[in-house]
Amino acid sequence: MELNLANPLVFFDLETTGINIAKDRIVEISVLKVYPNGKEEQKTMRVNPEMPIPAEATAVHGITNEDVKDCPTFKQIAKELARYIEGCDLGGYNSNRFDIPLLAEEFLRVGLDFDMRKRKFVDVQTIFHKMEQRTLSAAYRFYCDKCLEDAHTAAADTFATYEVLKAQLDRYDEKLENNVEFLSKFSTQNNNADFAGFIVYNDKGVEVFNFGKNKGVPVEQVLKEQPGYYAWMLNSDFPLYTKKILTEIKLRSAGCLLFWPNGQIAICFIL
User: Fold this and answer.
1) What is the three-class DSSP state of 238?
2) Can you tell me whether residue 123 is helix, strand or coil?
3) Which candidate, 77, 8, 56, 44, places its Cα nearest to that of 150?
4) Where are the beta strands (DSSP E) in the chain?
5) Which residue of 6, 14, 157, 188 has the lowest C-beta tally within 10 Å?
């Protein structure tokens, strides 16, 4: 089944130095841009992570330090990549838990405030697990009756993810709607305010902490009652996107953050 799209949908896959969202870096990114008219574009870029690639990571994706030593850094490709996916929804395999949070970190790390909240996310793995409960290779065999060659290369994984989603729509046509808004909601497994799940929404739609001694307590309440908690989080090893959301909540609670109808954020200063 071909996808019914209102906006371009960009499937992407990252190969990285590891699985720590706050510390690890991208070594390869592949994007497959599918337009509403069905046109497809694929790009794959190697990236110099500016840190050594551990042997255990190389064992997974086969990319070595030598392979990326002369490649551009993420900072050098960030603006071009942001322009390429501007106005697009995002799709991937396990992307809501890993690829999207790590991509957001990379953008913030180079000073590019790429707002992920303006787009919808379709996680094909979540659809797979909800409908059949399993790896991308297994999903590819199950839905497409194909063997995934070159697994753990970003380009192969990206295209397989796209094909799996189309096959899922064919197989579950009575349960799945062929539009990104439905698929985005269906493939969301959490109620995170940040990507990493340190701050989540409770059943009243209020941001609460999801870890430690303040688990379940509204963020605004903690920041008011424990003034040093904000500084502790900023100086600790939390993802940059978590710190961004925390700061927005702090400014909003102080009456210094305005959200315009177009989704842009304005900070006002009270003198």
Assistant:
1) coil
2) strand
3) 44
4) 9-16, 26-34, 40-46, 89-92, 121-123, 199-201, 207-209, 257-259, 265-267
5) 6
DSSP state of 213: G
Order across the sheet with 40-46: list the strands.
40-46, 26-34, 9-16, 89-92, 121-123
Instruction: Look at residue 261 in the predicted model and tell me its pLDDT.
Output: 42
Determine contact, residues 184/122, Cβ cutoff 8 Å.
Answer: yes
> What is the amino acid identity at position 69?
K
Q: How many CB atoms lie within 10 A of CB 31?
A: 22
User: How far is the C-alpha of 209 from the C-alpha of 213, rounded, in Å?
Assistant: 9
Domain 9-186 sits in CATH at: 3.30.420.10
Length of the chain: 271
| Cα dihedral 16, 18, 24, 25 in deg (nearest 10) | -10
pTM of the model: 0.72
Tokens read off for 51: 């840190």
CA 131/CA 173 separation, integer angstroms? 12
Q: Which residue has the tokens 């194909």?
A: 146
- Look at residue 267 in the predicted model and tell me its pLDDT: 52
Q: What is the mean pLDDT of residues 167-178?
A: 94
* Residues in contact with 206: Cβ distance below 8 Å, sequence separation at least 6, in sequence order: 218
The domain limits of the chain are: 9-186, 199-267
13 backbone φψ class: left, alpha, beta (φ>0; ψ -120 to 50): beta
101 and 241 Cβ atoms separated by less than 8 Å: yes
